[in-house]
Specification:
The structure is a homodimer of 251-residue chains.
Chain A lengths: L4 E6 L13 H18 L4 H6 L2 E12 L8 E11 L3 E9 L5 E13 L41 E7 L13 H9 L4 H6 L2 E8 L8 E10 L2 E9 L7 E10 L1
Antiparallel strand pairs in A: 1-3, 2-5, 2-7, 3-4, 4-5, 6-8, 7-10, 8-9, 9-10
Helix pairs in contact in A: 1-3
């Protein structure tokens, strides 16, 4: 089994934005699907893990694009594991065309949890550290790793959203892709027309659930860079607590 | 070329709801993709039509499901044209498994417009009525056709939404699939837990754009059936005008 997986996708018309380019949230979804296809093919996919009381949890995702696939374009998502530690693995992505063009890259960090205790567990305990057989160190992923997103206390509350049916995934949590979409929706169409997204990174901190409200705090750190903190309030906890943090670079 | 097209899909994890079943909006998206794959393979797909100043416009869609594909399940969308008239075609769908199980069916009605004048045009004018070569009259689609959704004036305004970046498609209009999602989001998770959707139908009346606001009016017509009218207000027209109308049957 090749250490690098390569999966075919198409930029579906209803997944494309006003400009005819694939929305970044849908691209993120394709990366996460490719990650599971790759893991499943190598014995550590979600379905197998759930049978042994384990699950992958996405901790960070960064996507940086030189060019975004356009409506009905076919593209590939290549994915491989760059490194594994006891509690985290780094998984990289390259988004490419069949002709060898590179649209962009992605980087992600995953933890493994025990689905009963919800605590992090030792990744190397799965099949005697079998994941180490799939580490690729010689394939470049020439984008920066996501760093901790630093934000001051001056970020402005720019939107509050109720959580609806479509936000919630099978675990009862807000779907990782939905956060990306809600954050990108903070900018209006005229802004997106002038400023396509170059890089999007997100770090997931805690889970939000049906009935919670999400509050989006935004801070501009340079003319084309913004940080967004998402916090939740719950019925019992009216003080906002952080659920994730994003950094977006526009062109 | 077979008159019936059959396309493979998978219920992607981030397209599934709290119960692990594919969300109906994503299923609708797959039906619309299958429609274009089928049309493209037979010489009347969107890409070809845009080159001759024509486009298909979805007028109605009805989906009725006995069972919904679950997370990571593979399924097929079969699609064929049941009938064509000068201004409208009827396209049907069957959602099936490789083992022959039928999950459900769909029915849709499409008009063809001139992309310059935005007026309806004669479908039979395309390649001398070539679409008539692909009509299938002997494949059953045993669900009711969508009828005009009758609503009184007592429907209650239950939600108002601003239109964001992700709502808008390449034509600058609110994406057909997004309406379905916004309507389904009118019911909360506890309702959806008790009452899975059996049938969803939508009739598109007019277009909404970035900057418009959408207003959702809901009316219960029997214990498990609701009608929803979506109207828009624009900067210049503060009186709501209808953009689409839905009918939802729950179990």
């Amino acid at each position: 089994m090749d250490k690098i997986g390569k999966y075919k996708f198409i930029a579906e018309p209803f997944h494309c934005d006003f400009s005819g380019h694939l929305c970044l949230g849908h691209l993120g979804n394709h990366l996460l699907n490719a990650a599971d296809f790759h893991a499943t093919g190598r014995g550590f996919g979600m379905k197998h893990l759930l049978g042994i009381q384990r699950a992958w949890v996405l901790s960070r995702l960064a996507i940086e694009m030189e060019e975004i696939p356009q409506q009905l374009e076919h593209f590939n998502v290549e994915t491989w594991i760059e490194g594994a530690m006891r509690y985290f693995t780094q998984r990289n992505f390259a988004i490419t065309s069949d002709e060898g063009k590179v649209y962009g890259y992605g980087r992600s960090v995953w933890a493994m949890i025990d689905t009963e205790t919800r605590q992090m567990t030792d990744i190397f305990a799965i099949d005697n550290g079998a994941i180490n057989d799939f580490i690729v160190t010689d394939k470049p992923c020439p984008i920066e790793k996501g760093d901790r997103v630093k934000m001051g206390n001056d970020a402005e509350l720019v939107r509050t959203l109720d959580i609806y049916y479509h936000d919630i995934d099978i675990n009862g949590h807000v779907n990782s892709v939905k956060y990306i979409e809600h954050v990108i929706d903070l900018w209006d169409l005229p802004w997106h027309k002038e400023h396509p997204i170059k890089r999007f990174e997100i770090a997931y901190v805690a889970e939000a659930h049906q009935g919670d409200r999400l509050h989006f705090y935004r801070e501009q750190t340079d003319p084309l860079t913004y940080c967004v903190r998402i916090a939740k309030t719950t019925h019992d906890t009216p003080t906002p607590t952080e659920v994730c943090r994003c950094k977006i670079h526009f062109r």
